[in-house]
Amino acid sequence: MVPTVPLPRRPLDPSDRTRQWYENELGWTTVPGAPVRLATGMRFDVLEVPAEAGFAALRHLGPTSPVALHGNLPERRGGPGGSGGRPGRRGARMRLLVAEGSAEELPGLLDWLEWGTVPLDLTAIGAGGSIGAPLPPGVSGGPLRAGAPGPQGAAVWLRPPEPGCEVESSLPTLSAMGGGGGAPDLVRLVETMATHCHRIRLRRACAQPLAFS
User: Fold this and answer.
1) If both were cysteines, with which of 66, 108, 139, 163 could 97 make a disulfide (CB 3.0 to 4.6 Å apart)?
2) Residue by residue, what is the 3-state secondary structure of the chain?
3) ∠132-137-138 over CA atoms, to 5°?
4) Which of 24, 64, 58, 60 is nearest to 44 (CA)?
């Protein structure tokens, strides 16, 4: 009897490894199809701002609050958990995970903070939405190393989520207003990002060349 040699296993595609990490290690819901996307509005919502505004607001997050970067990723100074650094390339965006339901709260919160009538480059992604899944640790191009520029156009973790930890307790929430509990305060986070988004808009407006008829 001729022994049969098992066929070699096909290496997992990076997208398969990415999906397995999010679903099995974190228990997060992914959206069917490629590339891998994470469903929002289930365990978390997402606030997206220019990276400059996001870096300014990092001090209002807990050390384990997940934060991602995408677009033309900036070179920055400081460690992955630090608030230092300034984006070196225009177009970089930051995505901050916040408590589920925050996307619905954002318009009212901006009105309460008296930013409701000001056009801000601040968007929320909640129930029914999704974001591109940043590459997890161990996958080529994974979390952003301190001082290293990320790949162009790719989403990477600035602060990756920790397997085995419930993400909800680390996310900014409106219920933290007033200092109750250990969750970061969504109000302070949004106020800081709105202020910096407004400054960015004014600076860009001033940089536009004057139009003469």
Assistant:
1) 66
2) CCCCCCCCCCCCCHHHHHHHHHHHHHCCCEECCCCCEEECCCCCEEEEEEHHHHHHHHHHCCCCCCEEEECCCCCCCCCCCCCCCCCCCCCCEEEEEECCCHHHHHHHHHHHCCCCCCCCCCEEECCCCEEECCCCCCCCCCCCCCCCCCCCCCCEEEECCCCCCCHHHHCCEHHHCCCCCCCCEHHHHHHHHHHHHHHHHHHHHHHCCCCCC
3) 120
4) 64
| φ, ψ of residue 158 in degrees (nearest 5) | -80, -45
Length of the chain equals: 213
Please name the residue that has the structure tokens 């607001």.
Answer: 57
Strand partners, 185: 173
Is residue 117 scored above 70 in pLDDT? yes
Q: Could you tell me the pTM of the whole model?
A: 0.80
24/17 Cα distance (integer angstroms): 10
Tokens coding 129: 């939405």
C-beta of residue 192 within 8 angstroms of C-beta of residue 54: no
Strands 37-39 and 30-31, bridge-based pairing: antiparallel
